[in-house]
Predict the structure.
Amino acid sequence: MSLKRTLLATAIAGLGLLPLSSVANEKVDLIITDAMVLTMNQDKTVYENGTVIVDGNKIVAVGDSSLAKQYSSDTVLDVDGDIVMPGLINTHTHVSMTVFRSLADDVPDRLHRYIFPLEAKLVSRDMVRIGANLGNVEMVKGGVTTYADMYYFEDEVAKTVDKIGMRAVLGETVIKFPVADAANAEEGIQYALNFIEQYKDHSRITPAFAPHAPYTNTTETLQKIAKLSLEKDVPVMIHLAESHREQEKIAERSDGLSPVKYMDSIGALNKNLVGAHMILVDDEDIELVKKSQMGVAHNMSANIKSAKGVSPALKMYDQDVRIGLGTDGPMSGNTLSTIDEFNQVAKVHKLVNQDRAAMPPIKVIDMATMGAAKALHMEDKVGSLEVGKLADIIVIDTKAPNMVPVYNPYSALVYSANSANVRHTIVDGKILMKDRNMLTVDEDAIRKEALEFTKVVRSTVIESGEVVQ
Amino acid sequence: MSLKRTLLATAIAGLGLLPLSSVANEKVDLIITDAMVLTMNQDKTVYENGTVIVDGNKIVAVGDSSLAKQYSSDTVLDVDGDIVMPGLINTHTHVSMTVFRSLADDVPDRLHRYIFPLEAKLVSRDMVRIGANLGNVEMVKGGVTTYADMYYFEDEVAKTVDKIGMRAVLGETVIKFPVADAANAEEGIQYALNFIEQYKDHSRITPAFAPHAPYTNTTETLQKIAKLSLEKDVPVMIHLAESHREQEKIAERSDGLSPVKYMDSIGALNKNLVGAHMILVDDEDIELVKKSQMGVAHNMSANIKSAKGVSPALKMYDQDVRIGLGTDGPMSGNTLSTIDEFNQVAKVHKLVNQDRAAMPPIKVIDMATMGAAKALHMEDKVGSLEVGKLADIIVIDTKAPNMVPVYNPYSALVYSANSANVRHTIVDGKILMKDRNMLTVDEDAIRKEALEFTKVVRSTVIESGEVVQ
């Protein structure tokens, strides 16, 4: 496209119809100028007065201010010194659960005592769509351009992602007990296969299997999914090494193996896998994780909220494991932008390592961008601002008082920024949010529909006498 | 004032000049309606469809929707279901250090290796004013209505607080080595005394002493300040039981006493004291703290960032110690609204207690409001929405996607909110921020002046070859 346009411009100039100066300017779809560009490339190049050039859905150039002169565009975003960086990649969530957010947050054994029963009553196509719409808006406003989801009726989530214009890896849940969209694991696998068939060629959506966890599925199911995922070349997302309950159940099943070793022993630990949480992993587990090339989703905020512990994520990162940040679902995290994880990730790793130099900001930002892209095996497409990559770009306001001054952009992002500091969000070359206004969906209508659904939630929860607060 | 107005209205009605219906309406300065009111009173009363009535600088009524009909006002804030709560009280910061934010965040032994030398070169009246102006804006935008500050040239901070309209306890630093505004501790005490004399009758500013820490002052200085503070009836703010360095130095000086026991042994632990951090305290220390009626500032975010550890703040709270949240300074925290502490306070206490039910949201909110008021010995004036208290009130946006839905307002505030969710901030009955716009100061001018000063910082830091990043 760029080449064609250049040839056309040259041809027109040859006819004497345009002044020569415009020949030098290649016409592109979007130019971002006057930016502090954090490329997050291999060398972590920063352009203090930088430019990013986008054509179609791709980045065609990244560099300093001189670059801007070589291109022209009808859409120029002069960001006045703001930070421009790769879109955030949220490696683990359950987006539709926004409609349950702030319910019974601190109930012991909450998943089994509260969440599964709540879902049995309330999960439906409508609920999945309504919740996903709300969560998508929250993510775009918080600078998340790609997310990985595990839930039910993922074809409904897919429709919302398609509409808003985000990128996503969507995993259809497989679990051994009856759930809203399947009576058993086999039906879950069939649902997933149909979903995969439907979305396998979508440019922004990657369909996937999502076996809930090792202990909530049989060995046979996990093996079948591993085999199918390699055949279809789709990801498998799973909660792994998350809880003591899981650890005990798997040890019983496997003659004492850890969850990671068990998954390896049954042939389910491979490059298509993405394990969420990975708290209860030892050095041998990490060796297996690394060798398998599987991805890891690190969800600090949810893990400490549930008092489950702190994943050795820093150790994994330092050993080149494919690891990125995730928020977990909105009943767990409880927010969906990984910006609001940054502070906690940086600081809690310092605390547990008793070292204020541990987990410096640049590692946190790497885990939110390239690390997360690697965790989802998308590092060739997204995660950094480099020529040829898809144009998933965010702009962070450096005028908000909490962001003044910026001596070190990584420090400012990790220790000062919050999700509301995101000004613009671009996915696949398209501006989804500009100056905090959503351009592709009606935010008010989405919020109103979600609030309407909360009436159903309230009446169901109150009827059954379950905990609200 | 209210009584006078009622009498006047009755008198006028008696003359037949006004219709009778208006007689029922008492005219007040501000009415907040359609609010989810969290009073944070003793019973933690919540009005789901509530009203707050303000006249002059005081709250004259708090109740349900029926209350609104009894009053009239030229200023009615219909907040459309948003959360209305007491203004946040930040019990510990060094506001002027905003101009140094994001410098050398993770340098080991940072206070002595980096911050003290930096301050020796750059602290001045101008720096203090410029930094305080910026920090004040950040706090008002983040819902902080009262803060406690420890720094130099506190008379400059006082001028900025007076202008913006906030409430503050301002502690002039006393320290044994030469600093920008005093050559030694004695000069620091004299500076503080002059400052106290100048501001002792200010309605919103409480001047105070701020001996930096036990180990950076002599026993004689600490005793002299304790005595003077009781004579003048002003607070004493100090960094206490914060670091192992302090613990060792004090043990050397006192035949093995802990910092708290040492302060008690020299007669400096009393009801006027506010101790910041209080990480290294044992059960005996807590007993002394409780008995003394001193206040405690709990700065989770800064404490874990520096890997200093986690204060037993939950234990102190549960034992009725006067304890509230603080952010610490912007080189430490690095943000100044305690909203951005909530998540970390709730979750890190769960983590260290290995109990997801530990530190529930309502305790966090209590520590941000009434607890903080008690820590600063201001609980008769601020910290809750109750009749007769000063009208320090904030309104939190519940329409932002991260705040939807609100089944439990305490959960939503602690696990979902960020400082940008604050919509309106009212101090002393006056609206300082409305719909996120500052009404009493020029935010752009303040930011520009701060950015101008960063040039001085950059050149000084770079000249001296010190760490920037």
The first strand of chain B starts at residue 26 and ends at 28.
